[in-house]
Amino acid sequence: MTDPSFTTTFTVDQTPRQAFDAISNVRGWWSEQVDGGTANAGDEFTYRYRDVHHCTMRVTEAIPGRKISWLVLENYFDEVEDTTEWVGTTIHFEITEDDGRTQVTFTHRGLVPEYECFENCSTAWSFYVNSSLRDLITTGKGQPNDKEVSATQAG
């Protein structure tokens, strides 16, 4: 039986360490609206996208050049009945090297087709991982969500 969790994979010419460093730079590929550490086991960070989605993650594993894993501690979606669908799910980035190329496999274990958010979430992850993260690894510039500026900050 195969795991129905969302998974996607891409390959780049950069080193496993370059891939690891880019993945750890969550602000560089997912969102500039991230607070907290994102690179070391035990770090916790909060992601926010407007009032639509916010979550808190704990980095549970960080092995440079090999893997990074996160546990979803808290989650909120505004567009689904069960706003906590991600709570308790895990996100894994596996990094392998083959014939001088680096493969990154992303799995959101627990994000399954039965979830109301599955279609939107898998589409979003596909963009952030296969486009934005890949761009950050290969060019040094990802496509993260911009940091929101509050009305008081805007002046």
From TrEMBL:
It holds the Pfam family AHSA1. InterPro entries: ASHA1/2-like_C (IPR013538), START-like_dom_sf (IPR023393). Residues 26-131 form the Activator of Hsp90 ATPase homologue 1/2-like C-terminal domain. Coiled coil: none annotated. Belongs to the AHA1 family. This is SRPBCC domain-containing protein. The lineage of its organism: Bacteria, Bacillati, Actinomycetota, Actinomycetes, Propionibacteriales.
